[in-house]
Design goal:
Layout (H helix, E strand, L loop, with lengths): L7 H7 L1 H4 L29 H22 L3 H21 L5 H24 L33 H15 L3 H14 L4 H13 L3 H11 L7 H13 L3 H14 L4 H13 L3 H14 L4 H14 L4 H13 L6 H7 L2
Length: about 350
């Protein structure tokens, strides 16, 4: 952990982008907590490998379609929703007993999003017209979506508006502005989940770890009913080197959503912190199987591979280049080690 290759907090810090996107950009593509359709993904047994691979292919198409639709690339998004829909349907037909509820939910989601996208393509509003205030807010891209931008039942229009505005500022990189709005909501309701999660993320993005720890551990129920908050708490615990506690929180998230790639990375960080390098590498590889574009997993694998097998610099270098390709911040120290 304390060698020149391994920077546990850096691993945690770069994960914030994923938490703002990959794990909860799916607030619409994954059922709300407690719904039956949010079935657990099982451990992959030998007889599950083929359906599991089909699921991952369809899921990647669906996730990419989500990002393209947000960028208003409607034709490409529609094609990928259609591709994902057909793959999920074939999966249901070929393996009718495999994760029935989860596959059915994905099929319905893809069908609904395809219909919406085709309708947008056909009847797209004039961009010069005012935005319909009753319409659902656009979904930010997976790399930048604030995790907790959904509204909570029973909240006022004023509070919901502040949360949406804060989410937009967070997406744009204005973490100080977003933080002020989240804090304004918390002044009225100290246990507002969306505001707590948003404030925690903003504090961490601003390097204010102590403040993030104070607000989350003081006001959150642990474990939280919101898995995005559990992930933030786990990141802070990793920073504090309380790896076993971090693992307990991350496992709660993975029990509900075994396909959560960002949670896999956090688990890998915690395992690496405990010196379990092989297990950490395995979790990073699982994360990439779920999302090959997850820069944090590529970055961590570069560090872990270099730590475990210094002779295989070429493999570590490939992962580092992929990390940069998919948006990671350059690490000059790691780059120098890879050039030796």
């Amino acid at each position: 952990m304390r060698g020149p290759y391994f920077k546990a907090w850096l691993f945690c810090a770069v994960l914030l982008a994923a938490l703002a996107g990959d794990s909860l950009a799916r607030s619409k593509s994954v059922a709300e907590p407690g719904q039956a359709s949010r079935a657990d993904m099982p451990a992959v047994e030998t007889n599950d490998i083929l359906p599991y691979k089909s699921y991952l292919l369809a899921y990647e198409s669906m996730s990419t379609a989500d990002r393209l639709r947000e960028r208003e690339m409607k034709e490409d998004a529609a094609a990928l929703y259609d591709e994902a829909l057909k793959t999920f349907q074939r999966l249901a037909s070929n393996y009718p007993m495999w994760q029935t509820n989860l596959v059915a939910f994905r099929i319905n989601y893809c069908r609904e999003e395809l219909d919406k996208t085709l309708n947008l393509k056909k009847n797209g509003p004039d961009r010069q017209n005012a935005v319909n205030p009753t319409a659902s807010p656009p979904r930010p891209s997976e790399s930048s979506r604030p995790a907790d931008s959904h509204e909570q039942p029973g909240e006022t229009n004023e509070v919901a508006g502040k949360i949406r505005e804060a989410a937009g500022l967070e997406q744009a990189g204005d973490f100080k502005g977003a933080l002020e709005l989240y804090k304004a909501v918390l002044a009225q309701d100290k246990q507002h989940l969306a505001a707590l999660g948003g404030a925690g993320r903003c504090f961490l993005r601003l390097g204010m770890v102590d403040e993030a720890r104070d607000i989350l551990f003081q006001w959150c129920v642990i474990p939280s009913p919101d898995n995005s908050i559990n992930s933030l708490l786990a990141l802070i615990l990793c920073h504090d080197r309380q790896y076993s506690k971090a693992i307990q929180l991350v496992e709660i998230t993975l029990k509900e959503d075994n396909s959560n790639a960002a949670a896999r990375v956090i688990l890998g960080v915690a395992l690496a912190g405990m010196g379990q390098t092989d297990a950490a590498i395995s979790e990073m590889q699982k994360a990439l199987a779920l999302n090959p574009r997850l820069s944090e997993a590529h970055y961590n694998l570069a560090c872990l591979m270099l730590k475990k097998e210094p002779g295989k610099i070429s493999i570590a270098a490939i992962h580092y280049q992929n990390a940069l390709k998919f948006g990671a911040t350059p690490d000059p120290a790691l780059a120098r080690l890879l050039q030796r």
